[in-house]
Protein 1
Amino acid sequence: MPPAPLSRSGKSRRTTDSPISYFIQKALDTPGLISFAAGLVDEGSLPVDEVGIAVAEIVSDPTSGRAALQYGSTQGSTELREQVLNLVCDADGVRPSDVNLTAADVCITTGSQQLLYLLGEVLFDPCDIVITEAPSYFVFHSLLQSHGAKVLTVPIDAGGMKMDALESLLERLRRSGELSRVKVIYTVDYFQNPTGLTLAVDRRAKLVELARRFSTDHRIIILEDAAYRELRFTGPDLPSVKRFDLTNEFVVYTSTFSKPCAPGLKTGYALMPPDMMKPMMHLKGSHDFGSANLSQHIASRLIASGAYAKHAEELRNVYRKKRDLMLSALDAEFGDFPAASWTVPAGGFYVWLTLDGIDTGPNGELVLAALETGVMYVPGEFGHVPDEAGRVPNNECRLCFGVATEEQVTEGIRRLRKACAALSEGNRTKVKTGV
């Protein structure tokens, strides 16, 4: 007799596997495949020596060693929270007091992904509304689905989320009586995942102004995902959206040590309004009683020694070179391809490629053709939310140059162009892998 069926919660039934899981597994299972899919970091640049020195210094002293190996607090190491506060405020060119911030407004999380999830637990009830960019970070969309939130989107252009479109959407929701359900406006404002675009400086102040103006019967929170901020290649470091939240009421700023240092530390952080911290820590305590204490001590030691800042600068050079190689390869391979256009990111990991007239979707013709030539990308439609007719753009690709070697970046774009050529010639099945 078969066992009785498992009775699952509504949240469990709403939670599905991330769409990128297939692509990660495919890359692992296919020797020789060049992956522009998963947003992983450059393997050769991981700070093995720097972390080794930090760990040795920590454990060589019994006092610091025991402190690092003991439980920490739910909110995180006091020293690291102070350092994070200074990192963000220094980047913004302000003192913490200028923006009404103290270390009490900082928490340390198990990567920035945990903060995204916890904030949803604090704020969302099923059918609440979250406004995101279109396209946006698709893993966050999956998280919102788990919480039962409804996602509405605002288009972007070269300057990021369009503020006139956001204002129109908020006004429409006010007229329809739905404004009370709007809980969060989400933006990846530096070198966005997936497009590589950055929110223009004038739009940052406007975003805070709109959140404030439309917070009539409840506060609308801006969730600023600054995971890629420290990987800037060109131009000045723009002030954060948080910089314009002078009263520390409307913006939750979150980032991570994964991208500018090492994802294995699994350590992120957030700065938030004080009345959010207590409920956030209640929930975080239920999750883990605090993020890994040893990782926090390592991150703190790297910052204090200057190794963190030095490594971030080295990474900017590594990724700048790979960005330039990808753009040069796109010019060489797709410059005469009238259907192709792409973004030119000033930092981060991603180039957004548009191929008009070619189905780039997960069930489209290019995915298979690309795999047959030995290259993989993320279908751009994952970053979109279906419109009222259930449609999403199916002519876009996210190309990540993070984990690929310099040689693979150039060769991968060549293979992708070959896949497109095979489709246009109608002989996709004759393409030989990697040739």
Protein 2
Amino acid sequence: MWRWFSTLAISFALLASAPAENISLTGGTVINPRDGRIIPKAVVSIKGNTIEDVSTAAEAKPAADARVIDCTGKFILPGYIDTHVHFFQSGGLFTRPDVVDLNAVRPYAEELATVKRTLPDTFARHLRSGITSVVDVGGPLWNFEVRKLASETAKAPRVAVAAQLISSVARPQLDLGDPPIIQIATPDKGRELVRKLAPQKPDYIKIWYVVSPDSPVEKFRPIVKAVIEESRRSKLRVAVHATELEAARAAVEEGADLLVHSVTDKPVDEAFVRLMQARGTTLTPTLVVFERYSRTFANKLELTPEEKTWGSAEVIASLDVTKLPEGKVPSRINDALANPDAVVERVRQTYEIALKNLKTLHDAGVRIATGTDAGNIGTIHGPSIFREFQLMREAGLTPMQILQCTTSNAARAFGGPTGVKLGAIEPGRLADMVILNANPLGDIARASDIHAVVKNGVVYPAESIAQ
């Protein structure tokens, strides 16, 4: 059905068949954010793709045929998990023509073809950043083929997916025959789309609860209710985009499993906090994405060193709005360039609310799962997670708390039979780990000082992953 995926699968399937072997990681300090346990001078025994044992050097009984990898002075953590990405988007300037129409500069069909062609490279950039699993929270039907390709590619994260977004608003600019976003006008149409998607076994059904004067909270709520009810019948979880407090409240009341953004319009109230606690709803804050569109348009984008080094050079080059041809600059970009200080101030105001809300909910015991919304304009696939860490730290989370959000909490959000095997360094878990050169508990910035990444029991020196 998807010829280009078949070609990629043939090219990369051999890479996924690395022979299983016994490995012992010795001498490193294991950090388990799930329970805060720290094991100095540990031995992690891996058999095939599974962690067989975690012990101290004195207790260890490594297999006789194990390949020993000396991790003295290193720090071993569960692989990072980004619970909000979009693989149908590149992160470049031309990836959302519904936001800024630049078809006159680069046709969207050409952009999408490049996105598909470079998927293996995008996968590798996530792995280079220590990200061994991701949740793609919505896109075209070919998202299911993305999940399949990732499972057949060694240098790729594990991928959970949602497919087409069930939306309160239309985005016809993205429809090239397989639209990622579908406006739904009635509850029955919402149920119909869930039934259409269910046979593909999506990891989530995604609702795009966008509030506007034409689509107030209460107008779309019956559709949210119907979609969640129909998803429950198929035993499917539901993720909801809701950045306004009242939309988020309605989504949680109707039974959403995952809120995929922070509330940014006002501080959360005590009733909302209690609701999140009672329902056990997970929040993915996606703090980084809130600055990236506007800063890009205002030519005020400040990428991290990790993004500049490990992000796609082609994508990053596209983000320079000053290089757009004269006469082909959309008004939204022209307006931002004309008053960049106002743009930066709006970003500051957004973070004043979003960071406070994250701290309030985290302190109340609401489960937080790290996510970036990578793929949106300016939000770079892979290394943008380290900007997310910076912002979580600014919100007041400790390094251990940030790492817990990125491992064990995120594994819960990934979910399914795979999710229960992720997020911790314990016997029986999948051997997905990141090996650091420095202790991130003293400074979360050290979480990007990656020595090697272990995915599915295969150890990749960091510099060998993405070129």
Protein 3
Amino acid sequence: MAINIMDNAVLLNLGVALGIGLLIGAERERSKNHVQTSNGQPDNSLAGIRTFTIASMLGAITSWMNFWLMFASLICVAIFASVAFYVRRDERLGLTTEISLLFTVVLGALAITTPVLAASLAVSAAILLSAKEPIHGFVLGVLTKDELNDFLILAGATLIILPLMPNVPMGPFDAINPRNLWLVVILVMAIGAFGHLALRVIGGRIGLPLVGMVSGFISSIATISAMGHRSREMPNLMGSAVAGAVLSCFSTILQITLILVAISQPTLKALAIPLLFGGVAILICGGMLTLNAMHHPVIESGNVSQSFSVKTAFFLAGIIAIVLVISAALNQWFGQAGLVIGSAFVGLVDAHAPTVSIASFVANHQLAASNAGLPILAAFSLNAVSKAITAVVSGGKAFASQVVPCLLIQVTSVWVAYFFNIA
């Protein structure tokens, strides 16, 4: 097969393969000069920058010519690497270089068909190889066995179970989507893990309030559930957990505002003052709780806390499933006339979905903007009720006694501003 010199695409892809070999080879060359074998001699491993570059080009050229030729070259490189490893088995402690060499051949072949993906994988591999000491130090010196088990549970739930979940409505009134419910389970566990990481890196007094505000954009109910579990597990961080739960409610207000900006600005204009009052009220509450937590010394516990509670995640998903069935039944029985009631019950699960629905009605001229405020605020208020119940169930009386008054202040501020605005 004659190579067409004028084929710029092939030349570009070969250049990508060359760069891949140089990148990974340079990292391996530098790495082996800083490593000693078990005999105390410098690591003269089988592959350096030249070998890796040639291996990448070998994969690229053979792949361009014929798939089976590329496969045969990969087998040959694997045999050479195996023989070299066997000869040096008493000196070497791992297979990293040998596996990297085979991976470089594959990346070189991939560069012919998908150069962007191949280059991205090469950079990722080089970073992973270069970060050997930080990764080993983190896994062996920082990460505990329980934290590793929690990470594996979260990874399995996300990468294995989630793709298997049906993404279709089913159950009574077609109200339950198994994939969405499983996403709730993953979300609660992920927020718990995020909060646990913030505890380890930033500290409880600042970490939990920060996690609460950020996670509130995803789900305030899930955030309150995770914070409540954290307060039970680590009572010394009760103040920070409460602050994180309260600040997640500010994120709810902010997200509703952003939804209305994107879908229906007339609805936003009608609700601007209530949303402003509710946002300022809860932000003041959260800020005061955060400052209070910062000024109280935290006695760090010697016990390593659990990253998240699987039981709490499943319990919350079950409650959401029940509410979805009830709200679907109300919508089917009452239809358009039950818009406020249906929105309120959906708000028990999520305040954002009713906001999107009502704003869409206004945008499609099916509902006046002046009439959109009541169903949206009804959903928001019932959502606050769910948050209060979640606070009691997840965090107990001590946690809920601080979160619920803040929720009451926020809801009261919203409704007072609403009635003052329409008066």
